[in-house]
Amino acid sequence: MRVDDLPMDDKAKRMRDLLSSFYSPDPSISPSPDSPSSRPQQITLDDINSTSFDPDHYMNFLVEKSNLEGLLQRHVEMAAEIKNLDTDLQMLVYENYNKFISATDTIKRMKTNIVGMESNMEGLLEKIMSVQSRSDGVNTSLFEKREHIEKLHRTYNLLRKVQFIFDLPVRLGKCIKSEAYADAVRFYIGAMPIFKAYGDSSFQDCKQASEEAMAIIIKNLQGKLFSDSESIQARAEAAVLLKQLDFPVESLKARLLEKLAQSLSNLQLKTKELSNASVDSKDSSKEESISCSEPAAAHEASVREFAEALRAYCVIFPDSENQLVKLAQDLVTKHFETTGEYVKERICSAELLRVLRVIWKDVLVMDEMLHEAALPDYSLEAAKVAVKQYVASRFSHLLHDISDALTKVHVRQKDGGKEYSLQVVLETSKKAVLQGSMDVLLDFRQILEDNLELLVNLKDLIIDLVQEGFQDFFRALDDHFLLLSGRNISPSQDQGLTEGTQGDKAFAGLVLVLAQLSVFIEQTAIPRITEEIAASFSGGGVRGYENGPAFVPGEICRIFRSAGEKFLNRYIKMRTQRISLLLKKRFTTPNWIKHKEPREVHMFVDLFLQELGAIGREVKQILPQGLRRHRRNDSNGSSASSRSNPLREEKLTQSNTQRARSQLLETHLAKLFKQKVEIFTKVEYTQDSVVSTIVKLSLKSLQEFVRLPTFNRSGFQQIQLDIQFLRTPLKETVEDEAAVDFLLDEVIVGASERCLDPIPLEPPILDKLIQAKLAKTRDQIPSAS
Amino acid sequence: MQGGSSGIGYGLKYQARCISDVKADTDHTSFITGTLSLKEENEVHLIRVSSGGTELICEGLFSHPNEIWDLASCPFDQRIFSTVYSSGESYGAAIWQIPELYGELNSPQLERITSLDAHVGKIKCILWWPSGRHDKLISIDEETLFLWSLDCSKKTAQVQSKESVGMLHNLSGGAWDPHDVNAVAATYESAIQVWDLRTMKKTNSIERGHVRNIDYNPKKKHILVTAEDESGINIWDLRKPKVPIQELPGHTHWTWAVKCNPEYDRLILSAGTDSNVNLWLASPSSSDDITSEGLVDSPTRRLNPLLNSYSDYEDSVYGLAWSIREPWIFASLSYDGRVVVETVKPFLSRK
């Protein structure tokens, strides 16, 4: 159902719709194709057209809604509409009838047309059948003749083959004579299947003859293959032919390879000679290039020879590259192994360069011949390893040198017991560090500046290696220092009790040297090296930038700063430990409660001063003189000076024990008002600072020892006398007099507190005893020195 | 480092060396301390930390006949303690009992339960079994180690066994292993030796001289901490007695005393003659075999083990005691008789 394009008034359209809905089986479909424009109108009239139309309701609705005039008008409209519908209906019926008539006509015409066709078809079938029967007749008549021809042809072929086989030995012989091995092999291979099938029966003789001929051919071919005089082309051909004859080529190949490998080992030997030669040349003169040119030339020739052989082999056995590559790589590897061995010795970069250059030349020569081996890349890798080894070995040698500089003197001293100078040790080791590092850098720069292709590629790597090497080197140096200083610590502690040995003392000196050396490294060596590295070893970057530069001077400086402090503190600790031992012996041995009256200054004072003297001497050799008094605000420990000097003197003369209590009260009071005197200040790298720290620590120990026993009067007086005697020399050695005074006072106060009857010596007696002691030392000194 | 301003102080009349936590007092955090005065009448002070922790209250003040060189409280009876005393020439050791109702008495006297008077030499210290009720007692003098059997009710103490170590070794102190009732570590001039009390035989030794003080880690077996004159503090594993598992720098001068915290196993307190008390955090030592401090210098170990340094002291600090009841509180005693009680709470969070 289609809405036509031609304009239609609503009524006509509605009518058509209605009719079509009449023809269509489902009434609900009919209005569906309606255009939306007609829809609203339809809806108003829909009532009348729908199936559910209720005439009564419609009438009621109309009557209710319209006046008479309207109703009449409506009536007229309806009458007209009905009439229209009638005419439309008539027209539709008529049209349909027309169509029906024309259809009937067409059918009638079709029926008349079909009638004559069948007879034509039958004629066609008959003709085709006759064609087929004729062709069959031709086929059968020709068949027999064709078969006969085919049979004849086959016999002819066979006969030709037989002829060929009978001729084969002769032909092969001819080929051997004319050395046309290729033809011979081709013939033989052609005859092979027949020999295989009938060789044991009809053609036995023939087979034997040709096999004999072939044996000769194989022999000749083999000879050709192995003879170096033949052209490579010919040898290659021979190999191919042999392979075609199913000859076990592999074994031949293996034999040839063996030969090559043998020549390789010859080459190897030469490399060694070369390096030996260059070592000799180093000793003999500076004209290395001349002296080593001869072996180098010989070496080059042999390498060239080897390369030729390689190429020949390669051509002969085209599928054997892998083995050859391996062989060539073996050679390179061996070269670098030799280099590695060589690097372990102490060589300078020039020698390494020469060796590398020779190797590179070899590699280039071989690369020409055997490109597939990628020898340059391979040797680059190997060179990387070699350079790495070289750098590592240089640094380890440097470390060794420094440690030698430090320990050799140490050892010598141990053996001879001769007076040695710490200063010398310090200077030599300083020099070893700085000069050694500079030499190493110079060496590396030489490598870096060389334009050998092999090394140019490795430039970045070398820079990184050098930087990394220094970083690791200084770390290792720090560890080594610690090891040096730590090695003797436990023995020194144990032996310290029984023997205050010379070795012990020397060792303390070593620790002091280490301390100062660490400072030197931090303040002088590292900046110099950093400068040098920045100047010629910047860049790199193989490592990747996220890791930052390999050489971090800041970190190294920090390590050595802390190491220096550690060593200085360790030195002080070791020294004070010895003094502590001395004091301990002094205070634990006698029975202080039954002490006899003091007659002279006790000898421990001498020992103490001796120790201080030794420390002073050591320190003077190593550390710089302090220029200024140490800073007070660095104090990290303090103690109050509890009594002022005059007050104490006064109190001590008051022997009354009753007053002791008020004295203690006064002490407390005095403590409140007295300013704190710093005892433990930060140690600096100066003679004064170190000596005064040791003195102060020792005096503090003395104070602690004095607090432990109980004294009788004489014991106390002995302490008083000893301390009084110490006062002057100590003040001479230590810059911080106030602290020394304070600590000495503390010792006397401590002793008086631990004394049952603290009556001090009368000053005149004290003075007399001290003078006597001084006189005695004066006497001893000239006699001793 | 902050000063010691956070601590609360208490002054003794005279100089003093030793202070001890009253372990058996479960109701209060209290300490007991005794003075060291050669000529005056010495006193034992029982000090209690007030409930707010802001004050130190003197709970009891008792006179003691001689100057006190060592003092230890009984771990199971808060009224009992031991002292080692000296009268100038001779040494003695005794077990004391604080009288009941001492607060109401005018001038309370200590009851002497018994004297440990088998000693000949200088008595160094008396050890109680540190963790709980045990009727044994150890006393150490310069040459001999005594094991006493104590009966508080009968007021007797009998020597159960003794072992003389000879004249050459000078015993200087010791510690009773809290994990093993039969093991006691004694310090010598040149070594630390561990004794088995059943056989009175030496079972283990650490060759290390100048040990001033020694303490077992109460939380970890086999771990021993020593304080040494010059070498600071060393932490040892008795199974590996060759080298310390950790070294701490200690003090500027001698490290006199060292105490492991009873609760937080890595906290160590040390007192030194540089008038400081230092609080340390030992590195977790479960698996590491650090042989020497210097050789293994990985960045992680660069953490400063020193948590705090309390420096509010006028003189050398000899006495040191953690409180068991409140393990974040410790008392320290400097030679001038000043008791300072501090809390380490601010540092616990950093563990």
TrEMBL record, chain A:
Protein transport keyword on record: yes
Stretch list, region Disordered: 21-49, 626-659
Compartments in which it is found: Golgi apparatus, trans-Golgi network
Main localization (coarse): Golgi
One cellular-component annotation, GO: EARP complex
Keywords carried by this UniProt record: Golgi apparatus, Lipid transport, Protein transport, Transport
Subunit record text: Component of the Golgi-associated retrograde protein (GARP) complex.
Family: Belongs to the VPS51 family.
Function: Acts as component of the GARP complex that is involved in retrograde transport from early and late endosomes to the trans-Golgi network (TGN).
Name of the protein: Vacuolar protein sorting-associated protein 51 homolog
Source organism (scientific name): Lithocarpus litseifolius
Lineage: Eukaryota, Viridiplantae, Streptophyta, Embryophyta, Tracheophyta
UniProtKB/TrEMBL annotation, chain B:
Highest rank taxon of the organism: Eukaryota
Domain EIPR1-like beta-propeller span(s) in chain numbering: 5-280
Keyword vocabulary terms for this entry: Repeat, WD repeat
Lineage: Eukaryota, Viridiplantae, Streptophyta, Embryophyta, Tracheophyta
Biological source species: Lithocarpus litseifolius
Renumbered ranges of WD repeats: 248-280
Family (UniProt): Belongs to the WD repeat EIPR1 family.
Keyword DNA damage: no
Entries under InterPro entries matching the protein: Beta-prop_EIPR1-like, EIPR1, WD40/YVTN_repeat-like_dom_sf, WD40_repeat_dom_sf, WD40_rpt
Pfam families from the UniProt entry: Beta-prop_EIPR1 (PF23609), WD40 (PF00400)
Protein name according to UniProt: EIPR1-like beta-propeller domain-containing protein
SUPFAM superfamilies reported in the protein's UniProt record: WD40 repeat-like
